[in-house]
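Anyone able to model this chain together with BES?
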Amino acid sequence: MRWSITKTQATETAGDLLVFPVFQKNDQADLKNLATGTKPADLKKQVSTSGFDAKATGLLPLFSTGTKASWLLLAGLGTAEKVGLDTIRRLAGAVAKQARSMKADRILVAVPEKESLGIDDEAFARAWVEGAEMALFAVGILKTGKKAKELPGSWKLLADATRHKDLRAGVLEGEKFASGCNFARDLVNQPPNLLTPIKMAEEAKAMAKAEGMKCKILNVAQMEKLNMGGILGVGQGSVNPPRLIVLEYKGGKSRKSPTIALVGKGVTFDTGGISLKPGANMDLMKSDMGGAAAVLGAAQIVARLGLDVNLVTVVPTAENMPDGNAVRPADVITMANGKTVEILNTDAEGRLILGDALWYAGKSKPDYIMDAATLTGACVVALGHHFAGLMSNSGELIDSLKQAGGETFERVWHLPLIDEHKDAMKGTWSDLKNLGPREGGAMTAAGFLAHFVDETTQWAHIDIAGPSYSEKATATGPVGGTGFGARLMARAVQILVS
Ligand code: BES
Ligand code: MN
Ligand code: ZN
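re: yes, here you go
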């Protein structure tokens, strides 16, 4: 999609579809001040007989006679009291899909007054662009003969010249956030026979190269040297060998620039291993690399924004399979930090690969670490699909992620993490065990990870098992990988360095 900003009058601009965002007032579309080129009385008559009440994301296409654009599209914002950034995102998504179905290639958007929206122009443009680009993300590209169509092509935001600077800044940011999200979605959607750990490493490497980041990929022999018993243990049952992917973005502009590490769980398929999962819905476990996808997407956004930070992205990636070579319950492995772990359940594999990766991330002495992982079914039971669980030892990270979640609508809910959760993972035969009590499973999983993070390092663990995959389409995305976490973490980094 191409975006531009122009000051020409709505009625005077050529295009296929001219969009007017409209508020709802007293259960009716508020048609005041719309420069539609249609007589207000005629417009009112058409709208009142259409059933269009301007509820959020509701749309009404009208054939236009008074504008240079062929069609008008009234686009419901809902009530002024309720409108927020995600209303804008969802509305843009609905408009983009409508435009595509009308085969409209040139879209004009009459940007509403910021006073009436209560949203500044930069934030409006960012949300609009994000919503439109995320909503049209293509799925089904493996169907024979299906081409990813790039309709609609050009969008023009119409507003007074005084607003262009802010709108342009928002457009540029929105494009970056959307593309990081869509990059993550694509990784999650790829089937596990194609997206193996090695393929994931190749994808990460190509992205890093395109964004000017350094990329290092550790193979089995290199991980053996580092005693990464967690990643190697989880990966040893698969013919697709594990990898550790490390990306480095050196954007720090001064010695004071912080170092931030992102760590993402990259299990390309989770059968459960010898502790095999039941067959029903096992296909969804292709999304068990949603954390890896999220941190790679976030790294792409951070690099494109050129943020003043040194970012280290660490992705342990492995396939969890049952096999003659697979780890078994009762095996004791040694992790990179020297701690021994008894594997009581081979399906609790995420924490094993993350333990090694968190230790590795700690080597660059980061000021902050954030990890994202589809870690526990317990978190899905607790919070459902609209929230990720947030567990952290840092008030600053909790505040930043809550703010970032509110703005990106990738929302987090703070869960406790205390020494008792850490202690619950102490082993009988070894330092640690990988299975705690059934109760509080999201928190004890975080407690396990805490054994691999320096206590003085500010760290946040984000359990995205619920929101990383959607079994139905939403206003801003199709079924499949949601890309959850990419925009959230990039925005959190942006907040932390501002
Ligand atoms: N990848 C799963 C967690 C998961 C469940 C992600 C549902 C997305 C949706 C993880 O590896 C797992 O199997 N966790 C076990 C841990 C248990 C054995 C302690 C779980 O949650 O059941
Ligand atoms: Mn598992
Ligand atoms: Zn898993």
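The chain has a mean pLDDT of 97.
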